[in-house]
Specification:
heterodimer, A: 366 residues, alpha+beta, BirA Bifunctional Protein, domain 2, 12 strands, B: 233 residues, alpha/beta, five-stranded mixed β-sheet, 30% helix
């Protein structure tokens, strides 16, 4: 990128940062080089296709900061006190293997709120601040709430093990679908599994393992036997009722305005009361948004929005611009309580925030 | 203006490639001493031979320093990001067959599919405190494959050789490697997952999209294709 464009991007980043600090946020910084281990533990190997990895002879594998969220959460958990509002601006780095015309280095300006007193109000605060800041661009806003889908999964009348398997793959739509079809009895278990369970029934898991070969590596025979036992128990479970699968299908397909989504979810909650808390959170957020002057009822809402992004948003999600334009969104954000739970090793804090890409603001304003 | 054809510089792959071209009227031979990587072409005008390690041919194709090249599909897909935009597969050559497969200990009677591997990885991570390790040198291919199939809680560890031994040595729990017969896997008490290979590879003739095709080079290319009995591209 030529220096004039970089200078304009930097100036725009400074302007946006000033907006966020004027809104009450404390400015923070983060290292450009982040330890790779934390990011790999959070996102798995997929992050390697998106972040630049480098080696330090002493610190080991490092990554060029792919975003600020992780270091800001770590900083807050180590030394911050609630409630806290942080703002930052700086370059982030994303490898672009497929869409090679997209920038691999760009500025991000962010605003993060750690305030558990009133989650709906914190969601509304972040969204309203972004909406107001970006208002001159006339962008379309999209919203969603991953919490609706997780509430539906938690509400299934099936085993904890099946629910945990579905929860683990909330962010991987293809495997989520395959698991749902299996647990719902819509797809048959693989033939190899049926054969395994029959053989284990006949001779016992230990004999089966011993006959297959020496147990090499760290995964021991008791782990293999434990999984066979889990598969046996699961095979004896009845399928997830069709009415409940139908609720999940309807949620996956749910898109419209926020008011339409609320009405549709009310109907669904009548059949699955476990949805009610998620519905209440959505309604409270709608009211909190309206209290901040956002025309919330007419906002676009998609229950699957943000599901294929990096897996850390687990509640309210939003984005401005980017849909159908072939360009990156101008801004994205959401609630990431689950991320704080992983980073805090059991300790969870309520967190919501978002980022703006100054280069996209300039592009959209052209 | 000659077009540069990059071929493997040694071993069975070189011999089979030379034979393939010879059977179609284009004679290749190494010139100079045994140790010198120079070659000559007879039967095709305006084509010069460049002998390279098969592993370097993808890079040379991607940058367009050679116009045509013969190497394995596995190497092209592993080494060239967005490979389809950079090179074109002209024709598979019918030799150099090798499958990139995922293999786990044969004693893992509960793991036969990617679905099983994913579930085993989740349980493994919960118990051992780290992700299930897969040893490979094909990082991009394996990662793309596992992501497309929604497998989580694994990590790739680099292994540039003797990959089948990593499980017994406890530096990995599973492997992803090229195999032609599967004998080495069996000898190391490993079995291949039943979902089919990550990739079926064979020696293939590639064309570099970004090479300089100006002047007489495009004509030389069409003439070569005609000699080889291939469509003119």
């Amino acid at each position: 990128m030529v220096s004039a464009a970089r200078l304009a991007e930097r100036a725009e980043a400074e302007r946006l940062l000033a907006v966020f600090t004027a809104a009450g946020a404390v400015q923070v910084e983060a290292d450009l080089l982040q330890p790779a281990g934390t990011l790999l533990d959070l996102y798995g190997e997929d992050i390697r296709a998106r972040a630049y990895t480098t080696r330090d002879p002493v610190r080991g594998e490092m990554m060029l900061r792919p975003d600020f969220t992780v270091p800001v959460v770590q900083m807050h958990m180590a030394e911050g006190a609630e409630p806290a509002r942080y703002a930052y601006a700086g370059p982030v780095f994303r490898m672009q293997e497929e869409e090679s015309d997209r920038a691999c280095e760009y500025m991000q300006v962010g605003y993060e709120v750690f305030d558990g007193a009133d989650p709906a109000a914190a969601d509304a605060e972040v969204f309203a601040l972004f909406a107001e800041t970006l208002a001159p661009l006339g962008l379309t806003a999209s919203t969603g709430d991953i919490g609706v889908l997780t509430a539906a999964v938690a509400g299934l009348s099936t085993t904890a093990r099946r629910k945990a398997a579905l929860m683990r793959h909330i962010w991987r739509p293809r495997r989520f679908r395959a698991l749902l079809d299996r647990f719902g009895g819509r797809s048959a278990p693989p033939a190899t599994r049926t054969a395994l369970l029959a053989a284990a029934e006949e001779v016992g898991a230990e004999a089966l393992i011993a006959a297959a070969g020496p147990v090499i590596g760290l995964r021991g025979s008791e782990e293999i036997a434990a999984r066979i036992e889990a598969l046996r128990a699961d095979a004896a479970e009845p399928p997830v009722p069709e009415a409940e699968r139908d609720v999940i299908e309807r949620i996956l397909a749910l898109r419209g305005t926020m008011d339409e989504a609320l009405r549709a979810l009310e109907t669904l909650a009548a059949g699955m009361p476990a949805l009610t808390p998620a519905l209440d959170r959505l309604a409270a957020r709608r009211d909190a948004l309206a209290a901040r002057g956002v025309a919330a009822g007419a906002l676009g809402f998609e229950a699957s929005y943000g599901r294929t992004a990096l897996e850390y948003y687990d509640g309210f999600v939003f984005g401005f611009g980017g849909n159908g334009t072939g360009r990156a969104p101008v801004a994205t954000g959401g609630r990431y309580d689950a991320l704080t739970r992983v980073l805090g090793q059991g300790r969870e804090i309520q967190a919501v925030g978002g980022v703006i890409r100054p280069a996209e603001v300039l592009e959209a304003g052209r | 203006m000659t077009i540069k054809l990059g071929l493997p510089s040694k071993g069975r792959l070189m011999e089979q490639t030379f034979d393939w071209f010879a059977a179609r009227g284009v004679q290749m031979r190494r010139t100079g001493s045994e140790r010198e990587y120079a070659g000559a072409v007879e039967g095709a005008a305006g084509v010069s031979l460049v002998l390279l390690s098969a592993g370097e041919i993808p890079r040379e194709l991607a940058t367009g320093r050679i116009h045509l090249g013969v190497t394995g599909t596995d190497l092209v897909r592993e080494k060239i990001a967005g490979w389809a935009a950079r090179v074109e597969e002209i024709t598979p050559l019918g030799f150099g067959f090798a499958d990139l497969v995922l293999a786990v200990p044969a004693a893992w009677v509960d793991v036969d599919t990617l679905d099983d591997l994913d579930a085993a990885a989740a349980a493994f991570r919960a118990r051992h405190g780290h992700r299930l390790r897969i040893a490979t040198k094909y990082h991009r291919l394996v990662r793309d494959y596992l992501r497309a199939h929604g497998v989580a809680d694994y990590q790739l560890v680099d292994s540039q050789g003797a990959t089948e031994g990593t499980v017994a040595n406890e530096t990995a729990e599973a492997i992803a490697d090229i195999t032609s017969s599967g004998e080495t896997l069996r000898a190391n008490h490993l079995k291949v997952l039943g979902d089919g290979p990550v990739l079926r590879s064979q020696a293939t003739l590639f064309r570099a999209r970004d090479a300089d095709w100006s002047g007489t080079k495009a004509r030389n290319f069409r003439a070569l294709m005609k000699t080889l009995g291939l469509p003119p591209g």
